[in-house]
Amino acid sequence: MKTLGYYNGRYGELDEMMIPMNDRVCWFGDGVYDAGPSRNYKIFALDEHVDRFFNSAGLLDIQMPVTKEELKTILQEMVNKMDTGNLFVYYQVTRGTGIRNHVFTEGPGNLWIALRPAEISDGTKPVRLITVEDTRFLHCNIKTLNLIPSCMASEKAKQAGCQEAVFYRPGGRVTECAHSNVHIIRDGKLVTAPADNLILPGIARAHLIRACEALNIPVSETPYTLDDLFAAQEVIVTSSSNLCLPACEIDGRQVGGKAPELLERLRVYLLEEFYEATKED
């Protein structure tokens, strides 16, 4: 199959899938999601993504309709049905189905899954960024479906001819990007925003930190500002599709390019880790 969807046990091509109008996602965007890449029919970092998925649901008191092991089994079985093993594997749970009411619907949530062909970036082509004030709510550590500010920022970046938008809070603290984490290299050290309630703790972010530890590159999980961003030796964007992606421009100003050897060590390490974990048997 070219694409494949799942809704509470029903399967089909994505264009053919239907959901009840009373699913709370339609009224409130009431749910959480997670996603990651698959290569050679192997889902990368699945345990980490599923743990985060269940954590997000727990923080919103959403009752999961499956266990972690059941979800992983369903995901792998769906991946195995596809024409290609190189995929974007997306899953979400909404709070349930019922007549529109602000109070919670009782019972387990609705499980959605969507698979489509995709490749990860090898990180060799730098991206251009813009900055956008972070007006999102104060629970950015929960991977909810409420992504309007991120959609608005992403469209603004597209209109500016850029690939991603960097959020900052009042006072200039950099948090993350519209759909990525963002980090800097300063004085030979990786500086990344702390995993507090202002950022989503990215799986790729965790792998980047572990790569630095393996390569003896110091790491500082501390807040940094827009001034730090523009003055950094390197600016790195990470996500499940971009394991180590450098930025070359922000708001029309050239950035990075001052520690290329260190950046290349990280890029190669992370790409090789991904290839090793998803190699053919």
Explain this structure to me?
The structure is a single chain. Strands 7, 8, 9, 10, 11, 12, 13, 14 and 15 form a nine-stranded mixed β-sheet that branches. Strands 2-1-6-5-3-4 form a six-stranded antiparallel β-sheet. The chain is globular and about 55 Å long. By secondary structure, it is of the alpha+beta class. The chain contains seven helices and 15 strands. The relative contact order is 0.15. It has two domains: 4-117, Aminotransferase class 4, branched-chain amino acid transferase, N-terminal domain (D-amino Acid Aminotransferase, Chain A, domain 1), CATH 3.30.470.10; 127-277, Alpha-Beta Barrel (D-amino Acid Aminotransferase, Chain A, domain 2).
What is the CA-atom radius of gyration, in angstroms?
19 Å
- SSE pattern, N- to C-terminal: EEHEEHHEEEHEEEEHEHEEEH
Q: Helical amount among residues, as a percent range?
A: 25-40%
What is the fourth-level CATH superfamily of the largest domain? D-amino Acid Aminotransferase, subunit A, domain 2
First-to-last CA distance:
22 Å
